[in-house]
Please model this.
Amino acid sequence: MTSALAKTPAAIASAVLIAVLSGCGGGEGANSAYCKDLSTSAPTFAAFRTGDTLGDIFKAVQASHHLAAEAPDQVKKDWKVLDAAMTVIDHGLRDAGLKPSNLDEYQAGKIPEGVKIEKLQGLSAKFLRLDRPEFRNASKAIAQHARDVCKVTFES
Model:
């Protein structure tokens, strides 16, 4: 007969394996904070992709920072790539004098006080970062993980 003490490590190992395979270990899975935040942020990124308003850019940047900080290991590096590109765009907009508080005026066709036209003209190069292979690959990996693990449709 085997003692109860001898069975304990096997029982613990089985419980850990079941937890990991079921997505309960480590706070990952569709009910994780990351997946919930990803789901909440998905409309912001969709609006950013369509370019509906410049305000969506600033919202997407903030969401990118948050998601990059809490991303699970499977997509941590991908979020770092995406967040770095979003940060370059954010800095470019702010260096040109655009900020959330003056976007309405800019979108109405007026140049807000403090906006530097010459820097605005250079912004297209910053947006081209979103068309680099490493950004596209990172975006695809994040979207795939979102579908598979979080059960969320997410496009960045």
Remarks:
- Residues 31-150 form one domain.
- The helical segments are 4-21, 33-50, 54-70, 73-95, 103-107, 117-121, 123-127, 133-150.
